[in-house]
User: Which sequence fits this backbone?
């Protein structure tokens, strides 16, 4: 029996602080080359949302934000900075839950998460980073640039750190993807015991994002990882295609 | 600068069909040896819930289950097998949501998931597999046996495939762990920009479970994976310690 394929998660360091307008695809291509881990065909390049947002100019200086009445009231209720709440409301289509100092909203992308994915870690003091406007499109742009630069067929995932109901702690999930189908559809296939799988659709992009986080924690200045050896389908439906419809959602 | 540490996810194949009473720690020790990937100090051994449940005799023949009134009514409402619903109710402390053919309950462990984690894939026809009674304890038992057998310091995670609100698809999460602290606590630490992280606690056990799934899909008969190179803290608080208190949970 040939050995089973191993998955490798390779951190990519040596990336400078990213600023608005930086060509992220080029920066990543240079970094993997410089550290001696050039990309190979099929590699999945995971990029944290923070550097994507920076390159796209999605940083907002809090001092310049004028909170409206609703933001002031919510901030007071939850013990939050009213300017931050104002940004959250601007990036959201609705508030899903609030309480215990936590504000869960639905973003314009359809994601349900704390603070519309806005946070202040790993940015210059006094600034907040918003999610990319269209993180599937951001992924596509980075993938195309990286493929052109390296001559390899790649997939790109933009990841962010989300909390979840029912469990403490956070995991990284995909907020955008390109060159990879977000779900590995097994529905209708048969397991080794002859049972037809009815609902199983591993969310491979979220599992890859979680795996990547293992080598790029928030303290380490590693905003990119290569995930190598994953069997996946190519596709361009994006993470937006796995946002559950509100009409089918039991928790919205 | 020394190269950054790579994480490897190594599938473990060649594992026979597990039956009640099988010594899973010994089976895994033999399998990693046989395939030429002996464990090393610090390796995290991820074991799917299904084989743990089998070794612990947690299979139930559906033909022998007599559904009660509540199960019959719920099954009819949701279009499910009443015997299956009866098992779900027996393993649960409460129904959290129902609708669209889905039954979300809180298990006796405190997990909130579909069908109390019970399913019929990868088991003999006509049987359903329940979650282990205490999956942290199961993890500990496997870890100790594996450590005795191999002479290495290890961590063990028992994983299962859970759906999630708001997104289609499933990811593997930890339902039990031993030798590893489930959260990698960063709270109060300072990021490279000087920002004090306030809520960040990566759920390393869930990220490792997700990474492991990438090499052991339901169709491949790979119920075990080694995850090597992850930086983690040892601990015995178990997955039960990250179940959010109901009083703090906005979605229960």
Assistant:
């Amino acid at each position: 029996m040939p050995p089973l394929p191993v998955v490798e998660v390779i951190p990519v360091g040596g990336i400078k602080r990213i600023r608005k307008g930086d060509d992220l695809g080029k920066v990543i291509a240079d970094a993997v080359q410089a550290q001696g881990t050039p990309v190979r065909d099929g590699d999945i390049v995971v990029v944290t949302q923070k550097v994507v947002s920076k390159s796209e100019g999605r940083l907002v200086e809090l001092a310049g934000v004028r909170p409206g009445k609703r933001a002031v009231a919510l901030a007071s209720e939850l013990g939050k900075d009213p300017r931050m709440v104002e940004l959250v409301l601007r990036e959201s289509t609705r508030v899903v839950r609030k309480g215990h100092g936590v504000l869960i909203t639905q973003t314009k992308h359809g994601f349900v998460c704390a603070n519309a994915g806005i946070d202040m870690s790993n940015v210059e003091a006094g600034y907040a980073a918003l999610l990319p406007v269209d993180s599937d499109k951001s992924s596509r742009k980075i993938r195309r640039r990286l493929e052109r630069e390296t001559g390899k067929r790649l997939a790109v995932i933009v990841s962010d750190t989300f909390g979840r109901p029912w469990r403490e702690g956070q995991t990284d999930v995909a907020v955008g993807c390109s060159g990879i189908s977000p779900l590995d559809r097994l529905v209708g296939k048969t397991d080794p015991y002859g049972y037809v799988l009815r609902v199983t659709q591993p969310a491979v992009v979220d599992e890859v994002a979680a795996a990547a986080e293992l080598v790029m924690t928030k303290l380490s200045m590693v905003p990119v990882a290569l995930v190598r050896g994953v069997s996946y389908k190519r596709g361009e439906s994006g993470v937006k295609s796995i946002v559950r419809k509100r009409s089918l959602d039991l928790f919205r």
User: Anything to note?
Assistant: Chain B has two domains: 1-57+132-245, 59-130. The domain at 59-130 of chain B is CATH 3.90.1660.10 (CofE-like fold). Chain B has a mean pLDDT of 93. The longest helix of chain B spans residues 135-150.
